[in-house]
Write a structure and sequence with these properties.
Elements lengths: L1 H22 L11 H4 L7 E3 L4 E3 L13 H8 L1 H9 L1 H15 L3 H13 L1 H12 L12 H27 L9
Antiparallel strand pairs: 1-2
């Protein structure tokens, strides 16, 4: 039992390090000018003090005008995906507030809120840098090459993890997959 446990711990450590490496492929990192200036809008959502909620003032502010929940998953990963899935009102209010305060379109607001829910500190750092005229990540554009690499890594790691669990449960030799 102890040898199996050591193998399992080693396997988990290697799998986690590979997953972290694979996840680095999906972080947005294309230099651009300040995103909010590029996508400036004239109509913005309005705050309703009676309901204490942001409300739409045009059709291009509604959820259908932005990208879907799969777009959130592909752009920023599972954390904002689950926020959007399980707390739709919080997500929607955050997007509308960002649209109103920065005067941007829905896609830019969604991209920024997805990045915020993924890692608030990094998002704030890049926001301050962009306001000072430096690097501004593009949270809207989906990079196909990075997506393919992530899917390949994820498939490989998931397969190895599944095989490791199968070997532990059945007593099969882990190296038999390579024969």
């Amino acid at each position: 039992p102890t040898a199996k446990m050591m193998i399992l711990k080693l396997f988990v450590a290697v799998a986690l390090s590979c997953c972290l490496t694979a996840y680095s492929f999906v972080t947005p990192a294309s230099p651009s000018s300040r995103t909010t200036a590029v996508f400036a809008k004239t109509s913005v959502p309005k705050f309703n003090p009676a309901l204490e909620k942001w409300e739409y003032t045009a059709d291009d502010q509604k959820p259908e005008a932005g990208y879907d929940i799969l777009g959130t998953l592909l752009r920023q990963g599972p954390k904002p995906f689950f926020v959007r899935l399980f707390n739709q009102d919080q997500y929607e209010q955050a997007v509308l507030k960002f649209m109103a305060q920065d005067g941007v379109d829905r896609n830019v607001a969604q991209g920024n809120m997805d990045a915020f829910f993924e890692n608030a500190q990094d998002w704030m750092y890049y926001r301050v840098q962009a306001e000072n005229g430096a690097y501004a990540p593009d949270y809207v554009t989906l990079n196909g090459a990075k997506l393919v690499k992530t899917v390949v890594w994820g498939t490989g790691i998931t397969s190895l993890l599944s095989w490791g669990v199968y070997c532990i449960i059945t007593g099969e030799d882990f190296n038999s997959i390579f024969r």
